[in-house]
């Protein structure tokens, strides 16, 4: 039984896609349903999302934002108002045409994102500079009619938060856009132990209707990139279309400057693909639903279960700890705890009790550590911190190893084949070159990084004068 | 300006419906949108929901339940499976017929409730008695195509939690059904200060597809009842239809026993209509986003703002406290704080500072209390508890005053006209009588209460032998 559990996972370097599917199902993060492209987020998966959400929600509130809730359905005419926006989203929205038996006079789409609803509301409630800034956020579900789907990474419906803000000045909106990108980067790096590259999207890759889009990009185990959060500066585009105007300090009417920013359940997919291994999930302690799993050894022997429960009880107030006192074999319990990515396994058996100690086993390295009874709590707390930073360091090293420089297309293609990962290469700024690179290599421009030095003077594709350094990669 | 704010609210005894609409908009709980029957829940309204949700989520978890997330969309064929269920919900679901430009092969409805999705999932994951019980809960949005809508009380879309559980035995399922009804009653009474009557719904009023439905019913200021939470025992009905079977302890296949239970944003409407008054909202301290509003008096005078901020700072760690240091007049600030139902207003001016004290003003009674500086925190904590229980007591007294007994239809109609509220009257159990009572009086059977003595031997409508005591009322 114990063996069987592990054998069910495909080796990650053999077939990464299958490994991923195995992990999300065997670790009981998700289940499929009869709704094409939608997933059921099971208790273990949802608990991870709740922990991510709690951290992010706190940062969103600490930066002065307020949560609101907008309608799920958007009238077609409202969605149509902003032309670039509708062009970007029309092909992928679900349309409601009937309410009960009645055909609707106007179709409603299920929100793919809520810019137009916020715009309409902001027009109602913003009149003067005294009403600004408006810093709103919403936690919700959205639907995008994707053709091919994969759990967490691309699903018809997903959960996210979407922030929407209004400001007096261009400068303030730009600061907000970058501030929230920093919040996302902090959640990724500090909480999820995922190192990210911050930067700006090219015109081609920016959000429909935005003036500029900023992104954090992370690198998966298989060398593919994943966009992990985006923040958009809308300028006054939506405000002009929707008439969101305010009397400024000089008594003149002017449109507000807007931003929006989003972070989704997709990040769970990233976390799996950054930290996971051939035994299954590896969870960062900061968001692990269970941080310590206690496994009694020879639990039928006198005193073992009592000792295990005593430790469970003493750790419960400060840690997320659980105990597996079922009648399954220890080997089976070890495997299950590994599959679920629980950061620390605590083993306690008759010999440990005799010696006044327990054994801590790190999920990430497999290292076993003997700890005296009176030191258990501090040892665990230290170890959890160590695991958290160690996961980050390992992921960062992996990314750096898989980041290369290319100054011409031969190098570009060669690197992509040999190294994979991110390729840093110069770009002239012409979308034609960006298109060609994608066509020839399947790599897309991920971002124009902040504050990085150029690697040559000429565009990697056309050889003309370079304008920007770009991170390129194949991406999820 | 200050006067204007108050004058905008309609007197509640003059036009209760208009008073309600005034309060939800002027206290900035909601805004309307261009989506018919949907509402925007504004920051103040959403903060109330977040507080209610946090309390209820904790109780749901403490009773051993796990949160999950199911798809928003349900294929028509899946919804059709349970005949009573679809009959109940078909007239009020929204249908998605197109994804992008493509017509779907099968229509999908937006979940009006998720029984069928849980049933399908449970069939996949339950195989043995060892897999039971399954105690799942979901926080989500649902859509029901209502013809007439009112903010919080009846909207096309609303937010809720829906619990769905599976059990080995009939007895266990029944205990779960009643346990969760108790949880709802506790949230209403302890957290929202709304007294409730617990009982069972009649066959006519029970949930589509349920074996029995239990309810908590509360009474609004205007004498109308509001169903405040329901818990359903499904027996093995869904399990048989969907094939959710398990190997029991005797090694035989048998269907599981199921329950479901739900609690919605509707309760915010109840809270408004139970506690509110002619000055606006009155919020129970347990869920008030701001429990104490500090209003500096003559704040331009030296030392006033400093003293106010110092108090703000010292209370911040243990209480939800805010300060209005804007340049609006104190009278305006008082009115706004009252409109928003903030439980305690703390006034501090030059004279108070001189005397080493502040003034606390209760929102519910208007009472003013001088408190010495060193006693502020304990005085506020005591006062918040007092307000919380006083709101409950007042609401209970109102309900008792508006509860009467009727032994025949003359009394019934007379009481309804003179007293309003709940009428306790006996019923023979025949749906024809229930239908007639509704037709003649617009009062519906609210519940068959637990453990209450009968008030006569014969049915209030037909005079035949009585089977049950029923609470009747006009209801939202
Ligand atoms: Zn070029
Ligand atoms: Zn009768």
Attribute tags:
homodimer, 476 residues, alpha+beta, BirA Bifunctional Protein, domain 2, Rossmann fold, Translation Initiation Factor IF3, 3 domains, eleven-stranded mixed sheet, five-stranded mixed sheet, 23 strands, globular, binds zinc ion
Could you write a compact summary of the structure shown?
Chains A, B: One of its GO terms (molecular function) is proline-tRNA ligase activity. The structure is a homodimer of 476-residue chains. Helices cover 36% and strands 27% of the residues of chain A.
The poorly predicted ranges of chain A are none
Numbering strands along the chain, what is their spatial order in the largest sheet of chain A? 3-7-8-14-11-10-9-22-23-21-20
Q: What is the CATH architecture assignment of the largest domain in chain A? A: 2-Layer Sandwich
CA radius of gyration of chain A:
25 Å
Named once each, the bound ligands are: zinc ion
Question: What is the CATH class designation of the largest domain in chain A?
Answer: Alpha Beta
Number of domains of chain A: 3
Distance between the termini of chain A: 34 Å
Question: What is the helix tally of chain A?
Answer: 15
Helix content percent band of chain A:
25-40%
Largest protein interface, residues of each chain: A-B, 53 and 53 residues
Q: What is the multimeric organization of the chains shown?
A: homodimer
Q: What fraction strand of chain A?
A: 25-35%
The CATH topology of the largest domain in chain A corresponds to BirA Bifunctional Protein, domain 2
Structural class of chain A: alpha+beta
The CATH H-level homologous superfamily of the largest domain in chain A:
Bira Bifunctional Protein, Domain 2
The tally of beta strands of chain A, per DSSP, is 23
Largest sheet of chain A: 11 strands, mixed
**What integer is the average pLDDT of chain A?**
96
The shape of chain A is globular
